[in-house]
Fold this protein.
Amino acid sequence: MSLLQREREAIVNNPYVDHFDFAEITSFIRGASKNLFISHAFKAREKMLVQPRGGFPTYEKVFGLYEEFKDAGVDVLPLTIDSNTRLNDYATAAKMLRLSEENDVDMLNGYPLINHGYRTTRKMMTYFDTPVSLRHGTPDARLLVEIALASGIFEIEGGPITYLLPYSKNFPLDKAFLYWKYVEKVCALYSELNEPINRESFGPLSATLQPPVIVIVIQIIEMLLSLEEGVKSFSVSFSQSGSFIQDIVTSNVLKKLSRHYADRFGYTDAQIHLVYHQWMGAFPRNKEHSESLITTATVLASLVGADKIITKTRDESYGIPTKESNASAVSKVQYTLGLLRGLPLIGDAEEEENLTREVEEIMEAVFNDTADTLWRKVFNAIKIGHIEIPFSPHIINNNKVITVRDKAGNIRIYDRGDLPLSDKSFAFEKGKLDIGNDKNALVSQIIRDIGIML
């Protein structure tokens, strides 16, 4: 038995997990329908894939949600995991699931996959015969991913940076890197049986004034960490920023440099996809404005050439959307995409040149670290502030970088903190701003920029 398999045996030996049959699961994945694999859907697609968000605690409600989504023409189904499971608190998740089922009241904000188990969940996955994406936000997702793959869920979102720094305050970053290394190995192992398991990084980060350079650097790093373990299908992503041209520039640079760094390290056979998240910041209370924001994001997704769009609903400001609202958003996005044919290629050469240079400056600083592995190089870069996520709550995050919008709505770096950006690159950023040294004015500007869509 290999070292990895011994670790897997220990992980699934959990009191909240029924007997885990590795041989049966291997046989299931080997013979699973191609329709369950988003990596297959990417290869066969004739249009952008549409994926909503959504999740409920009980099997019956998720089944009903999927029925609504299928009627609306969904391409990829979501499975959003509850917050107790995200924190590996399966005991509380079990209690809340039981109360949800007994009282028909949602006591969890998602689906407790561990407690439902893979045998039950697989029935739903195979019934709908549609790719399902696991959305969870879990630093230690080892058991969760084992159950998901055994269930027929063949896209796993997240990573050691994107599912830690925006979500957690104290969880150790070095442990997150090692736990996600396990996830990558298992995904790579199962990828040899059928179509590749697709891994997807979480590009929105804290969803608050994220500069494109940070988004792109983290996407490329999580991609490389995944590919070095043998994953063959990976999706980089980012979210609507509030600026048309900045989204297009971000897309152009992200696609170009993702391919460049994958090839540079010998992963020439890896399939790399682009995912675009509709607006992840505060949504307007006015539902007509929300509809307009969603339509605008759909147009932008077409302009950036995304392979998949992740949708929002007009009810985002009012709590968890209903299944009907979620399905309605999918239908409208599909209709809008059908209208967007033959869009022109758009770019800004000067912006793309500067953004490319910024990404390369940070990436080379990471690679030049003396650590012996990539994850340790990245860990060190985060500790010293060469990489940081604005508005992250995590204690290891440097929290020195300040971002603000220019008059055109582009997110600019006002204070580079310890980012290893050249004076030339930083001068380009600051040259687009006309904010002085008045700290009160700066804070007021940041608050307005955070609520730009309200």
User: Anything to note?
Assistant: The mean pLDDT is 96. The radius of gyration is 21 Å.
